[in-house]
Amino acid sequence: MKIIKNLSDFLDENVKIATTIGNFDGLHIGHRKLIEKLKLEAKSCNLKTAVVTFFPHPQKFFKKKVELINTYDQKIEIFRELGLDYYIEIPFDETISELTPNEFLNTILVDKLDVKMIVVGSNYKFGFKQKGDADLLEKFAKNNDIKTFFLESIKDENDIVISSSRCRQLLYCGNVERVKQFLERPFSVKGVVVTGDEKGREYGFPTANIETTSEILPGKGVYTTEIIIDKKTYKAITYVGTRPTIDDDQGLRKIETYIFDFSEYIYDKILTINFCTFVRAERKFSSLDKLIAQMKLDSSLAKKINDD
Q: Which homologous superfamily does the CATH classification assign to the domain defined by 2-151?
């Protein structure tokens, strides 16, 4: 997959492309359906495949609060795995934000990219204040000899649309199992192992303290996890929270993971945490002895879940 961050550079590629357009946070099954359709139709027309996306996320540009599911690097990595030919990134700035729908289509898709096919959702919105919709795009495409495909949103068994915002809400609730279904992969956090206060070691649970740049974390609690270090995968139990029993405060959330049957020195190493199942919510215990007893129960339960 070739990464294009300057649209002027794309003219030198001298290729004809089929594209899908959007922000693609999380790359959930709705996004994957678009990409599958894109690849299928592009192949039938001998076109290269491209995803057109924006950086920063438009909501961030407009100073709206949004915690992204993927880091930038994770997003690129997943697109690579999906087998696209081009990743085309448009800098989202004031100029882009003020383009009318027709200006966006003419300036970006026709003049800069010479797009021959577009695959988007039927609820696709674009242009200044998102005034452009599927009807406008379809009419424009017909007038410019561009093939278009509009896919309906994917819904769950309760007829609720699967979306990036819904995945975020599920993460906030700790429902990592449901998120895994929607993303078709575990929600993951990448970070570096840093020195902690070694309280876990004192209690018989030497944990790795993780510092991450991920914007979103699952809700406070305990989870079964898979830890990937140096391309090797280990079973673990991971805590996300503020340690109310130990620290007695509600400061920044910490990530601590206890890797089963593991004793290697991993300070400063980068690891990936795949969140698998929710074990329990964060609690404040009346004593350290009760916390330690609960940690033993959590570990036993996590091992049983991992074995199943």
A: HUPs (3.40.50.620)
